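Researcher: We plan to redesign the surface later, but first we want a full-length starting point. Tokens attached.
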């Protein structure tokens, strides 16, 4: 069972009032994954959003016809962060693959369309979530740029 205190520690939900958090709580399910488990794959229809409570999740750019590898990692998600924001924005397809790392990951799962429905009903909630989401997307884009530059520099040194 998901408790309100778990949602209060999620960065995407900071700024929401208790009533708004209670409405999101009603859509929430606690999930636990063991080992290196794929939560979702790049290109899949995005229907779920997760809030990481404990453990670590790695977002990877998996190349077609190749086995996944930590070498394809783009960013690491820490507790309190959100995964699966593609469920809130068109075209509603995951742009990366997400993998639970280590022995155990605990996440709160929320249906993206259901959360979007709450945001449509409560524009103030929608504004807070989408404003924070824009910062998350910007941060992840910068991380991808930095990783691309790092890899390019590494490749240039090796040749």
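Model: Full-length starting sequence:
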């Amino acid at each position: 069972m998901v408790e309100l205190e778990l949602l209060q520690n999620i960065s995407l939900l900071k700024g929401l009032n208790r009533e708004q958090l209670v409405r999101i709580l009603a859509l929430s399910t606690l999930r636990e994954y063991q080992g290196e488990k794929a939560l979702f794959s790049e290109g899949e229809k995005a229907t779920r959003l997760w809030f990481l409570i404990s453990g670590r999740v790695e977002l990877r750019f998996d190349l077609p016809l190749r086995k996944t590898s930590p070498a394809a990692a783009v960013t690491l998600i820490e507790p309190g962060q959100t995964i699966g924001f593609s469920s809130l924005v068109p075209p509603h397809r995951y742009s990366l693959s997400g993998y639970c790392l280590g022995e155990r990951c605990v996440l709160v799962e929320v249906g993206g369309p259901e959360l979007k429905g709450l945001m449509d009903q409560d524009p103030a909630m929608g504004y807070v979530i989408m404003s924070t989401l824009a910062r998350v997307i910007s941060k992840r884009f910068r991380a991808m740029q930095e990783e691309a530059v790092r890899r390019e520099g590494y490749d240039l040194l090796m040749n």
